[in-house]
Amino acid sequence: MLIFSAPLPLFSARAVPRLQALSEENTPMSELLIASQMDASFNQALREQLAQSHPGARLIDVPNGVPSDLPPAASVLLGRPINVRGYQAGDTPPPGWPYNLRWIQVVSSGLDAYPDWFFAGPPVSTARGSASDPIAEYVLAAIFAYNKHLPDIWVQDADWQFTALTPVQGQTLGLLGFGSIGSSLARKAQALGLKVITLRQSATPPDVEGVQTARDIHHLFSAADHLVVAAPLTPQTRHLINAKVLASAKPGQHLINIARGGLLDQDALLDALDHGSLGFATLDVTEPEPLPAGHRLYSHPKVRLSPHTSAISTQTGEAIRAIFLDNLQRFVDQQPLVNLADRSRGY
């Protein structure tokens, strides 16, 4: 069964009635109050931009976590992930939810960090695409580090040892998922001489010329020198990459997960690294996050871990503010919002 990401529709059928109701209301800028869970520096920069683009809007700081006791005048929420670092909000919304909110913009692309009730109110839009290029660059850095034996080849003393380094050009990059990250990565990889093969949910061909489509997940794993996990986490995709799939991996394959830890069966991964054909794993995500002290993934010689940081860059705030301001203009103009959340797809 093909699993992964098709282009996101402008809005889902479920969101249409809410958007129609939104458009029937008037939104005077003098009454527009935005509640933001972002940090103080982000909010201050956004206030300065709002002063230029929407001088009648006012932004207030509200705490992270479960949104509660929002001011009655707040019609827009700029929200951060809730279920992170082991915290679970639970199935019951806070009293009064969704208050008087008429639109929620979240700063993540995936939806697994929010409880179900979060989507039972006004339209929710995501920051899909805000980190595509930084994540693609992280993946390419991981590929070069693996092929060029970095940092192991750096000389520490006078005992120089020469190591043959593997060319990237001519290798095959497999993409499990082909949304905005996959599209950005495919273009960059092709420019470096990598062949690209992908598996996505839709039968629609990838929008990047030259990208091949795998028959199924086993074909994808068998063809790729570097296999990038870039799919959303949903109940249907949890532990999608299991022992049977890893058994299909091309010998020496480098597995890179920049999506969600729950997509990968970590016990099966360790077994494949110890006894199977898998060559190496670069993991920016795990389950749980952080891993408990002493977990084997910390010390395994064929694993490199980073703390879910591939999407974070010095330009992250700027990218998220740009998406928010674009959608804010649409909200004020009573136009359909972009990147509306689709729970069935996971983003």
Beta content: 5-15%
Intertermini distance: 20 Å
CATH domain class name of the largest domain? Alpha Beta
**How many helical elements?**
9
Whole-number total of structural domains: 2
Please outline the major beta sheet. 7 strands, parallel
Helix content: 25-40%
Question: What order do the helices and strands follow?
Answer: HEHEEEEHEHEEHEHEHEHEH
User: Multimeric state of these chains?
Assistant: single chain
Would you give an account of this structure?
- With 347 residues, the protein is α/β, with parallel strands linked by helices.
- The chain is elongated.
- The chain folds into two domains: 13-130 and 313-332, Rossmann fold (3-Layer(aba) Sandwich); 132-305, 3-Layer(aba) Sandwich (Rossmann fold), CATH 3.40.50.720.
- The protein is built from nine helices and twelve strands.
- The protein has helices at residues 16-24, 40-53, 132-147, 180-191, 217-223, 243-246, 266-275, 296-299, 316-332, and strands at residues 33-36, 58-61, 74-79, 103-106, 124-125, 172-176, 195-199, 212-213, 226-229, 253-257, 278-283, 303-305.
- Residues 1-29 have low confidence and may be disordered.
- The longest helix has 17 residues, at 316-332.
- The strands form two sheets. Strands 8-7-6-9-10-11-12 form a seven-stranded parallel β-sheet, with helices on both faces. A five-stranded parallel β-sheet has the order 2-1-3-4-5, covered by helices on one side.
- Helix content is 27%, strand content 14%.
